[in-house]
Every structure is written in structure tokens, then in C-alpha cells.
Write a structure and sequence with these properties.
Number of helices: 14
Structural class: alpha/beta
Distance between the termini: 86 Å
Largest sheet: 8 strands, parallel, barrel
Helix content: 10-25%
Strand content: 15-25%
Strand order of the largest sheet: 12-13-14-15-16-17-18-19
């Protein structure tokens, strides 16, 4: 063991270790390790409470391209650091202010202020966090209900009634609400550190800079967003407390992660760390050295390079182990399926490595299976037995059916049954179903606007998804017309019924359950404004919609046949009165699959191991006139009861177990643009 070498200011330098990379506290100091293949020398730029040192990494401590040493006599809690790279005695590239393995970034504590990044170490309170008996809830994928939430936007509105609005701590205060609604999985929009001030557009009304509110521009894969913390220097501890509290409530936590590009942008963007340290490994580049821009952000992460793949795997392991998160949703995941030349691969190394990694064995892995190049791997994403997918086909089909587009009924039948055409070998739980998400219209806006209204984004209204398969129900934007408002309310209920009664994993964004609006903006990535935050006053003003959604979620929990793990066999099992899935029309057994038909009737049936029958009948009518349908006979010893009618007055759905018996005639009148759901209950139950 080499003895530490004194340097000025009472510090001493000793050998380090080539792994793990980053800065890690050791007794009496900090161990540093940085991979710098382009440099032949590296200097540590160390700052402690205003005192600065520049300390060369001794060549004797170097292992391959990893420069490492231990600095004794420095308090990890007070240290900030960066690196200067040298080649042939001259500085190589920009100063590295962001160590790619830094687990905290200082200089970005206040939301909305331009950051001055310095790498730092997590607080001792975070490092020594007492998880106690915390365990992942371990919810089966088919039983999940995913609730997409923006940490800041979820509680920033004055109506939130929390102590530290817009923070991890404030979100924790809303856990009772999540339980009341019936949510068991929260998907957080990006929480890796990002620079919200990097947006170049300005408000056309005020001229003020617009912030990059969503956060899909990470500058670190390890450091949690400090501006989301009530105590920014302790952001990691606060986020861990949130995860721990959600687990105690039986709620899983997924992180929306961005590994397809970074906040460094194109060649003219800021060189924070990735570019200076290992540009060729971190980014996809053309033969002439230019950046491949497959993400429409200026750069594309080179996930096919072994060093970058190792960084991504280390990041995922860190969040899974240190923060106990339950899984990840991967933004523009096809980028990670590309090789070092940018082409899609049949068997991408990184996706397989993630799927097979033992540390990640219990984590949910969800791919956004499209990217900015137009690559669409929905149903064809390399799954390796693990990956689930955001099913954009479900979104498009449900929207088109509900807005009355001809030729959509047969495709809707596939989406309701878990998209067996897309996931025949993976089962329904591979399909994460959604009608709306953060990207696009809210559900209320989908039923209120025929086109996007993105003028506030400062891009002349040209940004955002151009075709939203939306319908304004007769008036563009807010309307006092009672018929328009009635139809919009009906459409929102229709969407929730089709979403929550479909096989697969349902997901919806925060606030849709009580009519949150973005004023027709379908690309609100830059709108850190009161109208884009969740307005909790809507919880009371739209009580009927909230209660409707809550009862639909309870109904889903009450009926396992809505949460099948596998596609049922085509044959009807012995002793069953109906097949597991059957299709009908105005009369039993007579579905109309013609292009002009906008009526879909389905019967889901199952017998429990105890021999009890469970049956749910759904009739969806998107014609502009009512339809009368005759459901098949209810199973023996049961009678059809009405759970939901989206056209009914009041809440429109009954609490499960309190459904209203169907009239003896047995036929069902389904209003125009409406959905009716029946359930079979024992004869005599709830009869009046």
C-alpha cells in the first residue's frame, strides 16, 4: 500500500480504485475515479467551502483509461468537484463540470434559475437512509394501474394545499388521494437532473423565456433533480422518503428515464461532461464527425457502445438498488436498439443486457416503442421475455372509434382483448394501454378541441402532434352549450370505460380523472404555468367524473377476468356456458364487422376455481343515434345488472356490488356516443 502524498492545504493523495467510477466517501476523505480515454492526464478541480485545489491524478494510480486516487482530509459533505483533461500538455475540451457518475449536482438548487453545475456527493443522510423493512409491492403487471405524474406540476398549483408545493415532499402528501382514487403505480416524469432554462423559445405574450418544464433533457443519469426538493441539497433523501411512503401505501414507483439523448444538445451545445470525456463513445456520429440527430434534440446517445451501455446499466442498477424504484419507462426506446452506426439491430445488446441483469430482475421495463425518426416497433420491440410497451395502437384505435371513424370496430375488438395481434407470445400485460399521456391533449381537451392550440409555446403553433384523432363535440374550446358539455362528459366516460375494461395495463395522466385542461395545448413541455399544473379545485367541481373513474377502478379490481395474464384458448372450457371472450351485435352472436358499423358488444366470461361464474358485458355505440341491443343470457343463477352507462345522469356508474338490476325485458338501450357495462350477479341480489 502506497503512503498518501501530502498536497497543500493539509490534503493528502493516495491510491484509489478503478471501480466503481465516480466519487465515493471513504474514511477520512473521498475516492475519485474517472474514465477519460481521450486524455493522457487528468486534474481534479476540488472546491470545499470556497477553498479550491487543482490536483493531478498521479500516473502511478492510473489503471488503463481510468484515472483514480483518494483525497484524504476533505469532508465529502462539503466537497464539489470537476475535472480538467489534458492531452500532450494542453487542455483537451471543456472543463468537466458534470461527472457522468456524479450522484448529486450542486449549483442547480433553485427551479427556473440558470444552473452552474458542479459535481458533488449525496448527503450522509441520503447515503445512510434507513429503509427499514421497505419492500417493493411486487404487483403483477396485469394488476397495475399506472398514473403518470409530473413531480412539480402535480402539487405546484395553489389549490394543492401542501407545505412545499412542487416537490417530492408535496407529492408524498397526496398519497391518501392516490389510494382513494385506486392507483397502485405512479410513473414519474423525468427526475434525473436537467436544465429547465435551456429552452430557446419565448412567450409570445410577455417575451419571457419559456422553461423546459417536462425535463426530457438530462444532464446526469444519476443525480436526482434538486429543484424538485424542499431541501435541494438533500434531494436524494427526499426522493427516497417519497418512494418509501408510496411503498407503504402499496403503490409502486416507475421512473420515466431518458437515455436516448442528453441536455448537451448538438455540437454547439454546452459541454458538461459526456462530450469532453468520451464523445465518440457517448454519441452517435457520422463518418464526417457530425452528430446523428435521431432524437430531434441535437444528439443521440450511442447505447450500442460498450462504455455507454455500461453507464446506462450502472444508472439503472443505482436507481433500483439505492432508491428501491420498481421499474422504468424508457423514452424513445428504439434508440437503444440501434448499433454504433445508428441502424436498428435484430438483437440489441443493451436491451438484452437490461432484461437479463440480475439487479433489475424484479423491475418493470416499459418501452416507448417509437422514436423521432419514425421507427415504430410497437408489437415488435425486442422483448427478451421482459419488456412491456406503451401501446400507441390502443390510443389511436380508441380515439378513432369514439370519434366515429368508420372501419375501426374490428380493430377495437383486438385492443380491448389485450392486442393479441401485437403480443401473441407475451400476453396482454405486455400492452400498456392509454388514451392520453403527458404528450398530447389531456382527456378533457381531446373532447373539446378539434386541433391543437399551441401558440403559447412561441413556435407559431407549428409544434406538437398534428393529428390527434380528436373531436370538439360541436364547439372549439370552452362552451356553455349544455348539449356540447353533455357530449364531452359522455366522451370522457367512454374513454375511461374502454381503457379500464380492456385487457392489459391501463395508464392515464394525473388530472384526467377530474377534467384537467391545457387549454388545447397538445405539447405543453414548456408551460410552467398555473393552467398547466394540476388544479385541485377540479376535484370538487368535477366530483361526478372523479367518482365515475374511482368506481371504474374498483370494478376492475373486483373482476379478475378484466386482468388476464394470458390470452385465453380459443376453445370453450368444459362446463363453461360461454367462451372466455365472445362478440355480439344488436342480437347475441351477431357482431357487425362491416366498415360502417360503430357498435361493438363483447362478453367476457370466466369460472373461478370455486365454480362461480363471472361475466361482464360491454356495449359501445359510436353512432350518432341510439341503438338497442340484446345481451346474451346471463350465466345460470345470475341476472344482468347495470354497472355503468356513460349517458346516464349523475355519476354514471354504481359502486361494485351495488349495481342496478336490468329490467326484465333484458334489452339495453345504448345512447348515441355511449358505453353501457353490465355484470352478472346472483339472482335476487340487489333486486328491487
Amino acid at each position: 500500500m502506497r503512503a498518501p502524498v501530502p498536497v497543500r492545504g493539509g490534503l493528502r493523495v493516495g491510491p484509489g480504485a478503478a471501480a466503481p467510477l465516480g466519487a465515493h466517501p471513504v474514511p477520512g476523505g473521498i475516492r475519485f475515479a474517472v474514465s477519460a480515454p481521450r486524455a493522457d492526464a487528468v486534474h481534479l478541480l476540488l472546491s470545499v467551502e470556497g477553498v479550491e485545489w487543482e490536483i493531478p491524478f498521479p500516473q502511478a494510480y492510473r489503471t488503463g483509461a481510468v484515472f483514480t486516487m483518494t483525497v484524504h482530509g476533505v469532508d465529502p459533505a462539503q466537497a464539489q468537484y470537476g475535472y480538467r483533461l489534458l492531452r500532450d500538455g494542453e487542455q483537451e475540451g471543456e472543463i468537466v463540470t458534470v461527472d457522468p457518475y456524479a450522484r448529486r449536482l450542486a449549483g442547480a438548487d433553485r427551479w427556473g434559475e440558470r444552473p452552474r453545475y458542479r459535481s458533488a456527493l449525496p448527503s450522509a443522510a441520503s447515503e445512510e437512509f434507513a429503509w427499514g423493512e421497505d419492500r417493493r409491492p411486487g404487483i403483477a403487471p396485469q394488476d397495475l394501474v399506472v398514473y403518470e405524474a409530473h413531480v412539480r406540476g402535480f402539487t405546484r398549483h395553489p389549490s394543492a394545499g401542501v407545505h412545499a408545493p412542487g416537490t417530492y415532499a408535496a407529492l408524498q402528501e397526496k398519497i391518501p388521494y392516490l389510494r382513494e382514487l385506486g392507483i397502485n403505480c405512479v410513473e414519474l416524469l423525468p427526475v434525473f437532473e436537467f436544465d429547465e432554462t435551456d429552452n430557446t423559445f419565448r412567450s409570445p405574450d410577455t417575451g419571457a423565456p419559456l422553461l423546459n418544464y417536462w425535463g426530457y433533457n438530462p444532464v446526469s443519469f444519476f443525480a436526482p433533480k434538486a429543484g424538485y426538493a424542499a431541501a435541494p441539497a438533500d434531494a436524494a433523501r427526499e426522493l427516497k422518503q417519497l418512494v418509501q411512503a408510496l411503498h407503504r401505501a402499496g403503490i409502486e414507483v416507475l421512473l420515466d428515464v431518458v437515455f436516448n439523448h442528453t441536455g448537451e444538445g448538438g455540437p454547439a451545445g454546452p459541454a458538461l461532461g459526456f462530450r469532453s470525456l468520451d464523445e465518440d463513445a457517448f454519441y452517435l456520429r457520422a463518418a464526417d464527425g457530425s452528430y446523428l440527430n435521431l432524437t430531434a434534440t441535437g444528439n443521440t446517445v450511442n447505447g450500442g457502445h460498450p462504455r455507454t451501455g455500461s453507464l446506462i446499466l450502472d444508472s439503472l442498477r443505482y436507481w433500483a438498488h439505492e432508491f428501491h424504484v420498481d421499474g422504468f419507462r424508457f423514452d424513445m426506446a428504439p434508440i437503444l436498439a440501434r448499433g454504433r452506426e445508428g441502424a436498428l439491430q435484430d438483437r440489441p445488446y443493451l436491451l438484452e443486457a437490461i432484461a437479463e441483469d440480475p439487479v433489475l430482475a424484479d423491475c418493470k421495463l416499459i418501452a416507448e416503442a417509437t422514436d423521432a425518426t419514425g421507427a415504430d416497433l410497437v408489437g415488435a420491440f425486442p422483448a427478451f421475455g421482459r419488456w412491456m410497451e406503451w401501446n400507441g395502437r390502443f390510443r389511436d384505435t380508441v380515439r378513432r372509434f369514439l370519434t366515429g371513424r368508420p372501419g375501426t370496430t374490428a380493430d377495437l375488438a383486438k385492443r380491448l382483448t389485450g392486442s393479441p395481434d401485437l403480443y401473441p407470445d407475451r400476453g396482454p400485460a405486455a400492452s400498456v394501454n392509454y388514451v392520453t399521456c403527458h404528450d398530447g391533449f389531456t382527456l378533457a381537451d381531446w373532447a373539446s378541441y378539434g386541433q391543437p392550440h399551441n401558440e403559447a409555446n412561441g413556435e407559431g403553433g407549428t409544434d406538437g402532434i398534428p393529428d390527434n384523432d380528436s373531436w370538439n363535440c360541436g364547439a372549439e374550446g370552452p362552451s356553455a352549450d349544455p348539449l356540447v358539455r353533455q357530449l364531452r362528459r359522455r366522451q370522457a366516460r367512454n374513454a375511461f370505460l374502454l381503457l379500464l375494461l380492456s385487457q392489459g395495463v391501463p395508464m392515464f395522466p394525473a388530472g384526467d380523472e377530474f377534467g384537467r385542461t391545457q387549454r388545447g395545448n397538445n405539447n405543453a413541455y414548456c408551460q410552467d404555468t398555473a393552467w398547466n399544473w394540476v388544479d385541485w379545485g377540479l376535484r370538487e367541481r368535477e366530483e361526478e367524473l372523479f367518482s365515475f373513474v374511482r368506481r371504474c377502478l374498483a370494478f376492475r379490481r373486483a373482476h379478475p377476468l378484466l386482468r388476464r395474464a394470458w390470452f385465453p384458448a380459443d376453445q370453450t372450457p368444459a362446463g363453461w356456458e360461454h367462451p372466455p371472450v365472445s362478440w355480439h351485435g344488436r342480437r347475441p352472436g351477431e357482431p357487425d364487422w362491416s366498415a360502417h358499423s360503430l357498435l361493438l358488444c363483447a362478453l367476457l366470461y370466466e369460472r373461478t376455481p370455486q365454480g362461480e361464474a363471472d361475466a361482464v358485458y360491454l356495449a359501445a355505440n359510436s353512432h350518432d343515434h341510439p341503438m338497442t341491443v340484446q345481451p346474451p343470457p346471463a350465466p345460470a343463477g345470475t341476472r344482468w345488472h347495470v354497472f355503468a352507462d356513460s349517458a346516464a345522469d349523475g355519476v354514471g356508474a354504481q359502486p361494485p356490488g351495488e349495481e342496478t338490476p336490468l329490467e326484465p325485458a333484458g334489452s339495453v338501450s345504448v345512447a348515441d356516443h355511449a358505453v353501457v357495462v353490465l355484470t352478472a350477479l346472483p339472482t335476487g341480489r340487489n333486486d328491487r
